[in-house]
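Notes continue from the previous slide.

Worked example: a multi-chain complex. Inputs as given:
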Amino acid sequence: MEKITIEPVTRIEGHAKVTIHLDDQGNVDRAYLHVNEWRGFEKFTEGRPFFEMPQITPRICGICPVSHHLTSAMACDQIIGAVPPRPAQLLRELMHMGQFIQSHAMHFFELAGPDLFLGFDADPAVRNVVGLIEANPDLALKAVRLRAFGQDIIKRISGRRIHPNHSIPGGVNAPLSESDREDLLGHIDEATEVVRMAVQLARGWFEENKELVEKFAVFPSGYLAMVDEEGALQLFSGKLRLIDQAGKPQEEFKGSDYLEHIGEHVEDWSYLKFPFLRKIGWPQGTYRVGPLARLNVAEKIQTPLAQEEFQYFKSLNEGQPVEGSLWYHYARMIEALYAIERAKEILLDPEVLSNNLRAEPDGFTGRGVGCLEAPRGTLFHDYQTDEHGMLTKVNMIVATGHNNWAMSKAVEMVAKTFVDGNNLTEGMLNRVEAAIRAYDPCLSCSTHLIGSMPIQLRVVDSQGKEVKRATR
Amino acid sequence: MTKNGLFSAQVTLATDWLADCAGCHMSLLDMDEKLVQLLDLVKITSSPITDLKHPPEGGVVVGILSGAVNNTTNLEVAKMMRDRCKVLVAMGDCAVLGGIATLRNFFDMDEALKRAYVDTESTVDGFVPQSPELSRPIPVLPVDQVVKVDAYLPGCPPSPEAIYHLIGELLIGRLPVAGGEYLKYD
């Protein structure tokens, strides 16, 4: 038996490697996604004051620092027993929408775009964002501006594009200025048009690549996502709902009760743990999160343009969950549309310029669980402190973690469908990487535990001897 | 930005991240349109946003590493980058100083691993992963404790303007020095 190793997996955030084990006939037997790093945030924050966490935890991930900043602040609100006033919540949510715009735009155009628009088999030397710029400079420039607009929302609220300093326990530390609001409103319609174009671009790609999409890591699973009281898509604040593979709601719970519902399994070959639903157990209780899961779970979207597109999405599988991994790309763009529409609603809210931005502490509790939907899926921060507010226990489950089982399954399925050990091509291996990219994993987040995750592709034989290593 | 005679062709660039949050590379992308303009002068070879996995064997002019060295794979990546570039830049606080993850050095490594994979409240029947496929964690170090670094750009992350300045200085053949508004540790 041979083994193929892909390392590092590129155009994903962080370090991972893939090993593909072949049988004696050269067919794929098993494939593994190894998340290969660990940094140790859950340990090294012990003994520190809880209020440092909204500054420390963004350093888990530079792509979604806002998610960690906000989730951390939510946990801190609970520790001091404070409920932030509505204007503070609006600014937090607005920053969150800015992050969805920038993160989803970057993934669609800069990370996944080269596969979608230059082709899985394109020369790896040009199959990247630079190649995309050369192939379609007009589109690329629009993409760059869209991402910049999302980052600009974050910067105008927090002073920085990356690693914001804005949310504090009980609220936020600065208002939005009237001129910043006007500037953002001045550009938002143009940015919305770019998102609408991206949605149509994605839809067109799927129509043209139906055959590929239908055999590319399509599998049933449960789905976990946040919804509002009406069962509509919610990214910032709501209850969690888990549906089964037929779309039937299985459980609804508050984020703060996550420990009763979610457990994490460990495998020897990955530093990233595997969450599962406790009620069902490992491995049957695995599920997916992120854009595809959110649209599968939601019954509607509360903004008009995204709702219109959502109806088309729901028609894809006649109301049943959409199972193909590549559909994540389309779901991501529908969410970007929701995010930009929601950002405009918030900017037009009369309270968005208010100075009522912080609630006073009202009863120290020493425990807080923050939960929201990060661009890649549901995020939990759970802090416990002693009576002085020094952290005693920190636990986090990050978005990419929930998808660990699904990514591993997608890798194996795509390897089995496309990889021929006797006639190995670079494009075959790139398809395996594309299976991972569909989930837009954020491996810095995943590896807050202890490290970073290089991706490598290596073929070993049945004696464990390495036959081929994919290095580009 | 203009190119003078020091480099005859496009300047080749390779970047990689070690143990970090990806924020430094995001800041690189935050150059926005300026990044697109730079592509006339700079040829990006391997980087996390391209599909070339390692710097070309023939070498590149500029190598940029972000992140701290925190496991055995990071060590290999840092050494390969050093071997294959003329000028090595440490970008961001983690590469320059070790950064946030150095907090881990104050704890016993086995205790920290046990917290992550055994004791965390959500973990069920946990154990510390040991597969030979995985790299082994080591104490967290800045890049220059492992290989020679030629230029330093601190910041968490460095601003896009600072990164643009750095690349501009390299393009005209000067070793960049972070100063003034470009020198920030945060």
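Summary box: Helices of chain B lie at 23-29, 33-38, 72-84, 93-97, 109-119, 160-171. Residues 69 and 75 of chain B are 6 Å apart (CA to CA).
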